[in-house]
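Q: Joint fold for the lines below.
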Amino acid sequence: MVLGRSRAPDSLLPVTDCSPTDLLALTAELVDHTSVSFEEGPFVDWLEADLRSRAHLTVDRIGDNLVARTQLGRDQRLLLVGHTDTVPVVEAADLVGGTNAIARIEGDTLWGVGSTDMKGGLACFLELARTVAEPAVDLTFVFYAREEVAQVHNGLIELYDERPDLLEGDCAILGEPTDGSIEAGCQGTMRFEVTFAGARAHTARPWMGRNAVHRMAGALTAIAGYEARRPVIDGCEFIESLQAVHVEGGVAGNVVPDRAMLRIHHRYAPDRSVEEAEAWVRSLLADHLEDDDTVEVIDRTLACPPSLDHPLLQRLRDDNDMTVKAKLGWTDVARFAEHGMPATNFGSGDATIAHTKHEHLERASIERTYAALHALVT
Amino acid sequence: MVLGRSRAPDSLLPVTDCSPTDLLALTAELVDHTSVSFEEGPFVDWLEADLRSRAHLTVDRIGDNLVARTQLGRDQRLLLVGHTDTVPVVEAADLVGGTNAIARIEGDTLWGVGSTDMKGGLACFLELARTVAEPAVDLTFVFYAREEVAQVHNGLIELYDERPDLLEGDCAILGEPTDGSIEAGCQGTMRFEVTFAGARAHTARPWMGRNAVHRMAGALTAIAGYEARRPVIDGCEFIESLQAVHVEGGVAGNVVPDRAMLRIHHRYAPDRSVEEAEAWVRSLLADHLEDDDTVEVIDRTLACPPSLDHPLLQRLRDDNDMTVKAKLGWTDVARFAEHGMPATNFGSGDATIAHTKHEHLERASIERTYAALHALVT
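A: Joint structure:
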């Protein structure tokens, strides 16, 4: 059931110069195709049938990932990339209808899970795939599964493993919610597990032991006192971060603890390699560690440079007088960078309300996004 | 089954001037009466029958606690106090017979659970109860249950609640393992739970939040840098301690944590009241806390002064040219101090091997202990 789907008669007129379609209503239709991670199948079936009905597209399906391409022999090929899954549905009494699984339009706002992250982006891509049969550059639409869960499940990895040829091209735009502005590149991430060693003793005789929790004080002071590095790349200011995200230690109420563990999350800007970033964190910690402590990298991801000097991304920015800032978080653009392809984040919706039960999308945001993409490819 | 219980013929002779009994063999007999906390009943039944058979003793049983008194109208009454329970039995392949529940004498060493803590002490008291019918001071033997478990179960509390008259007297000796020297009084203890407040944020934008784990750095530095106060009371040097014994915090790998918790254990010397000790810790922490942090005292116990100026304790020390030191841990002597009675720790066995699977008792230790007690009461 879609509540409030219909618009007032005057707003049935196309609201942008480039699309006769009500993009908010199209997004609502996509929201109603519930597609929580690992359960994207039926939604992907529906998308696949739609895309296969378009004669100008070649469609491939790999698992629950869908790739639709124009084959016009253009000089350039642009990838328009979006994930089909959403975070879990929320059932709550303070939601209209008791759930955010049902799309609801109120005025120029669409409510529902995934409206921002990222069925608005998908609606833009789907509309381009349906209506722009002869784009100025060849287009590859990539709809991939399982982005909102552990990276090991990510559909882009599956595609790169099984059919890397489908992802060839010159440049990629990832439809993550950026509210119609460019959030260029992304920072890399790295998590460390630091284990501080000690020796157990009875708390009545602490000098017989070595308190591993006390030993964290120096490293915590260094981390808390860290001032963020802020490199500017292609005019975008990145802001690195270093945060203790987990701490644990302790044996019993009267025992000097012999082990304490600190997990640290580091985001680094794309002017550093992953190795440089790791070496920097290790050097910061070194003064506060002793020989029997350990520092282990439990995961790390690559950064992605802004690449705003690529002709297509440059046009996206310049033709729309667009706000450009650095993406401080990590997104799948880094997977394209890893394969040597310039990529940026550009989509509709406000990222700060993504993953909340009151997720919603404004008409102005999606129409601005669509207009810029349409101009870029026509 | 008691392995190796019998002694070589020459050692059947009394080894002290004051006891014809083989005290190590008597302790072995008590070890064989297994009495893990909450399961002391059968052992207490056996003790009760033995004590009731002695015409010079008045015996009262309250639950699984046993009190046996002489009623000679002496000027002074000395309490000889021991707990009947032990920590759990250990079954392990590297133990002779596969368990430490079975007493085993090898030469002058007795192996078995509770041999040190504190069936050696009980053996001394039982031997005095059996053999000294006309002591120089009236004696109250207190055998109490459930010392090795949470304090709420402690048999002394039950006795003080139900029959405080049975615990009246001038002075108490608690048979905790001190290897035949005096460990005077005891330090009080106190545990604090300190909660550091913060505000969640995405680690890509940590300036939107407040990292509660980082905020612990100051308090941890202060605690780690604390130099122990060492007051000397009645010639005994107490050494206080302040130890972080538990730490926890963290929400998720990419979230600035909004809460961190530190548990702190403090032992304070008996020249401070419990209120003074608490105020001191709070003042040490105060510089490192903010308004929305909390400091909660989760438990606290009283200290016990050495009381070595009490005539009986003074005699115990002086007549035996005895080593005297402060008890840095906490023991049930504090319960007597709380009720205004001087008390000290004095028993056989090495406390550092109590509660280990290889717990054992040396003959010299129990014989030295018994000789001093015997001299004191005769």
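Q: Anything notable?
A: The mean pLDDT of chain B is 92. The longest strand of chain B covers residues 188-197.
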